[in-house]
Amino acid sequence: MLYIACVLMGWLNVYAAVYSPESQTSLFDLSTNAGKQLMWIGTTVLLIIAILVINYRFWDTFAFVIYGITILSLLLVLVAGSNVNGSRSWFKFGGFSIQPAEFAKLGTALALARYIDYPNVNLTKLKDQLWCVGIIALPALLIIASNETGSMLVFASFIIMLYREGLPGIYPLIAIVVITLFILTLIVPKLYLFVAILALGIVAIFLTPRYQRSFQNIMVIGITAFSMIAVVAGVDFFVNSVLQKHQQNRIKVLINPAADPLGAGWNVTQAKIAIGSGRLQGKGFLEGTQTKFDFVPEQSTDFIFCTIGEEHGFVGSLIVVSLFVFLLCRIVILAEKQRTRFARVYGYSLAGILFFHLMINVGMTIGLMPVIGIPLPFFSYGGSSLWSFSILLFIFLKLDSRRVGMFTR
């Protein structure tokens, strides 16, 4: 029911995003994004039926085969793919396009679930950790090669599942500290951060009980402080020498939205205007002025949340976010009830992917995240997105059917 609600609301908002008062096109006009999205919804229903009919053991047995197919598709798109907005990550078939990167998340989730399901796999062991990193890194690197950075970042979401399955907490902690230092370095002068880190190191040493204040523990604190200083010192090099120009601009706009309001900051500025103008209850369905006059680019895809905020206001936005929260909670609850580790790992992978997409997509439209080209699940226009998220979700429901005794062929 949550899935159906999201898909139908997404379809209506795609229609609202492309609606023109002059032409007054129909919801079913196949020449518009709304009409094409309806076709994608129809084909998705067929995929769902196929998933429910296929034996649930298929996904476990052929997990690595599916992973291999997705890797092959990522390699092929580098050679035979079409260039869209500077990214060679699409296969074009007439008026339709397919993005292999969207399906790479599915292949990776299945491969990780299959590997972790092996009897002797223990994520506290370095060997097993490296195998998991390799499974995640291979498609991620191929996606970077196609210049699709946003899709690559989604693979970081698998750390949620890995932590649930036994990955030591030090790894997520390191990731959080590095991200925090990165953001602080862009806001606070580096000298202040250096002094703060050294002060924290000294305080940590003195707060350590005397009987634990060994040379080894002091060295650990010192190395930690030095590593944090190295991260702060390396931020400028990473931003100026590693990131591309448009990526640098997106980070600058995130830190200072007024830096380039008519250039790099245009998307975020217009997105916030659109959402803010909706106020409490919104302007009404098909009444969004920011939408009608195309102020917000990509409003039926990456910035679809702007249409929701403008036309349905805070109330509509809250309903949409609540739908996703309930869906995520439902998935996690079902994942914990699974009889097999394979199904549980896959369920948590699904939850992590959906959560990451929701956090980034909504966050970038309200200026809390940098602009990254990833869709809002079930809402954004596009067949690749709708197919991949629907397949991800219904494979999990098929796996869960074994537990409840439905569709257990």
From TrEMBL:
Keywords: Cell shape, Membrane, Transmembrane, Transmembrane helix. PROSITE patterns: FTSW_RODA_SPOVE. It is found in: Membrane. It is a multi-pass membrane protein. Pfam families: FTSW_RODA_SPOVE. The chain crosses the membrane at residues 40-58, 65-84, 135-163, 170-187, 193-211, 218-239, 314-333, 345-372, 378-399. InterPro entries: Cell_cycle_FtsW-rel_CS, FtsW/RodA. Its main location: membrane. PANTHER family: CELL CYCLE PROTEIN, PEPTIDOGLYCAN GLYCOSYLTRANSFERASE MRDB. This is Cell wall polymerase. The lineage of its organism: Bacteria, Pseudomonadati, Bacteroidota, Cytophagia, Cytophagales. The gene is rodA.
